[in-house]
Design brief:
single chain; 16 helices
C-alpha cells in the first residue's frame, strides 16, 4: 500500500479535532494509570517499607525484602521489576507532593533527584513555554539520557549507549572514519591517539607506515625526527643483514659471491684512501696564509686524531685480518 502522507490538516491519520479528542481520552487513562501505579507502590511500601541510609536502601535484610516483594508481584500478576520500581517511586513522593496531571513516568524520573526540596520544586516548574513535563524534558532536567536526542551532546550520549556493544562500536567507528568531513573535525591530539590505538597491531602498523612513507611530505617530516631516522636506518641495515644471511645459507652461488665481495671490499678500501689523499691535496693548499681560529684548530686536530686512529685500524686489519674495535678507537670514531 502507498505510504500515508501527513498533510497540514491532519495529525497522523486523523483530523486535528479527532486527534485532540484522542489526546484528552488518553490523558484520562494516563492519570488513572498514574494513580494505579502509586497505589501499587504504596501497598508495596506497606508490605516492605524502605530501609534507606544515605539515599540508598541498606543491604541488610535486602534478601528477605526481595523475597516478600517477589511473592507480592506474583500474587497480583505483575513483574518484580515493575513492583519494585513503583515502590521506590512512591517512597520518593509523599501523597501530598504528587502532582495531578503529571504522569507516573515523570514522577519516577524526578525521583532520582536526591534533594527533596529541589525535587518537589522541579516538578512544579515545567520548561519555559510548556505547560507540562514530558519524559524527555524530565530526563534532560535530571541529567539523564533522552529518548529523542536534540542537542549534539545528547546525540553523542545516545551513540555511546548504542556503541557499548563492541561489534556495533567497531562498525560505527569504521563507517565514521570513512567520512572526511567527520575526521576533519577531530582534534589533532585525538587523531594521534586514535592512530596509535589502531596501529597497535604490528601488521596494521607496518602497512600504514609503508603507505605514509610513500608520501614525500610525510616522509620528509618523519625523517626530520632523529629517533625515527635512526630506526629507519637500523631497519635497513638489519634487513640487509637478514637478506645476506638468507642468501649465504640457501644460494649455491654464495661462495663465489663471497670471493667477489672480498675483492669489492679491497677496491672500496683503496678507493677510500685515494679519495682522502686527493681531497686533502686539494683542500690543504687553500689554507696558505690563512690563520685559523682556536676553535677551528681544535676541531681540525680532533678530526686528524680520528683519521690517524682509523689509519692504524686499517693497517691492523690488512696485516692481521682482525677488525675488532677497542673502546678508545670506538669513541674516537664516534667523535666522543
Amino acid at each position: 500500500m502507498p505510504e500515508e502522507i501527513t498533510t497540514p490538516d491532519k495529525d497522523g491519520n486523523v483530523s486535528p479535532a479527532r486527534y485532540a479528542e484522542i489526546v484528552a481520552e488518553l490523558r484520562k487513562l494516563v492519570e488513572t494509570t498514574t494513580r494505579i501505579q502509586f497505589t501499587i507502590g504504596d501497598y508495596a511500601l506497606e508490605v516492605e517499607p524502605m530501609r534507606e541510609s544515605g539515599g540508598q536502601e541498606r543491604t541488610d535484610s535486602l534478601f528477605t525484602v526481595k523475597e516478600s516483594l517477589f511473592r507480592l508481584a506474583e500474587d497480583i500478576g505483575i513483574s518484580y521489576k515493575s513492583l519494585s520500581g513503583d515502590r521506590w517511586t512512591a517512597s520518593k513522593w509523599p501523597k501530598d507532593r504528587r502532582v495531578p496531571g503529571v504522569s507516573f513516568t515523570v514522577h519516577r524520573i524526578f525521583a532520582s533527584i536526591t534533594d527533596e526540596d529541589e525535587r518537589f520544586a522541579t516538578i512544579l516548574a515545567p520548561p519555559q513555554g510548556k505547560t507540562r513535563w514530558t519524559p524527555d524534558e524530565a530526563n534532560r532536567r535530571a541529567g539523564r539520557q533522552v529518548e529523542r536526542p536534540v542537542t549534539p551532546q545528547e546525540k553523542v550520549s545516545a551513540l555511546h549507549t548504542l556503541a557499548k556493544d563492541e561489534a556495533v562500536a567497531a562498525t560505527v567507528t569504521g563507517d565514521l572514519l570513512r567520512r572526511p568531513t567527520v575526521v576533519a573535525q577531530v582534534r589533532q591530539e585525538d587523531k594521534v591517539r586514535a592512530v596509535e590505538e589502531l596501529t597497535r597491531d604490528e601488521a596494521v602498523a607496518a602497512e600504514v607506515t609503508t603507505g605514509l612513507l610513500r608520501r614525500p611530505d610525510v616522509a620528509f617530516k618523519a625523517m626530520s625526527d632523529d629517533t625515527a631516522r635512526h630506526q629507519v636506518n637500523h631497519a635497513q641495515i638489519e634487513r640487509g643483514r637478514q637478506a645476506r644471511e638468507h642468501f649465504e645459507d640457501t644460494n649455491p652461488a654464495a661462495e663465489a659471491v663471497r670471493s667477489i665481495d672480498r675483492s669489492v671490499e679491497f677496491l672500496d678500501l683503496v678507493t677510500a684512501c685515494h679519495a682522502f689523499v686527493a681531497t686533502s691535496g686539494r683542500v690543504v693548499p687553500g689554507l696558505r696564509d690563512r690563520q685559523l681560529s682556536d676553535d677551528e684548530r681544535v676541531l681540525v686536530h680532533e678530526n686528524v686524531a680520528r683519521v690517524r686512529a682509523t689509519l692504524d685500524w686499517i693497517e691492523t686489519a690488512v696485516d692481521t685480518g682482525k677488525v675488532d674495535v677497542d673502546g678508545e678507537l670506538a669513541r674516537l670514531l664516534q667523535g666522543e
